[in-house]
Amino acid sequence: MTSVLEATPPSFGADDVARIAAELFGLDGPVTDLGSERDQTFLAEGKAGSGVIKISNLGEQAATLDLEAEAILHILRIDPELPVARPRAVSEGPGAAAYRAAVESPDGVHFVRLFERLEGQSGGRGAPSSRATSS
Fold first, then answer.
1. CB count, 10 Å around CB of 116?
2. For residues 90 and 99, is the Cβ–Cβ distance under 8 A?
3. How far apart are CA 108 and CA 1, in angstroms?
4. pTM summary value
5. Which of 80, 89, 83 has the alpha carbon at shortest distance from 113?
6. Which H or E element spans position 15?
7. Which residues of the chain have pLDDT under 70?
8. Residue 97, CB half-sphere, CA atoms under 13 Å: how many?
9. What helix, strand, coil percent values describe the chain, rounded to 5?
């Protein structure tokens, strides 16, 4: 198994991501590439709202993604006012696995997740305010 830091990032085109967003999450509008180090991250929009789609690279393990989902859900149970992007369930399945789906590509199976879009600013310390960003 290749390390998540060494695996080649996924290379889905915007049309493919728009199709995935519509099929899995009902987001039938445009998608915008947000850039990412080792995954692919897109802002997806539609009549049902908007969210951030994360497509994991081939080195990512399902158990790691499930742990991340469980940690976020725990945070939200303890303090629902914290500004943490909520994951959106893909299926009615049990537990954290309900927050990820698998999609095929020529190089293998990638996990796809959707998180709520949070308002924020980009650019780090001292940067001027910008439009809404996502995490």
1. 15
2. yes
3. 13
4. 0.83
5. 89
6. helix 14-25
7. 1, 121-135
8. 6
9. 25, 25, 50
